[in-house]
User: Fold this.
Amino acid sequence: MTALNLPDPVTFSDRSCRGVDQEFFFPSNAEQKRMVRRFCGGCPRLAECADWAIPEVLAGRLAESFVAGVQMPQLYGKTPRQKRRENAAVELTEVAAAARDAHVEGAA
Ligand code: SF4
Assistant:
């Protein structure tokens, strides 16, 4: 279960995307999507960002862009909208867990 009212990642001065053009997070092809995933994968705030995004995406407040290296749900598609939100939330949960695991391993 994720706590509500987590700090918005824009408040983190050490986030990798500080000063990065927002357009970067709306990639239009597979290579650009890989670049965003790699970029976020190196962010020191990846776990916090993914945690923040989970309730946001479930509430329908995130769509189309990439957050924490995860594609937010498209506005339109064959899969029901709530299911797309839940799928993104699952992926964000996995990203947050993996980021924490990597942090623990790096500290060992
Ligand atoms: S994980 Fe990505 S979107 Fe989130 S704060 Fe870091 S660089 Fe920005």
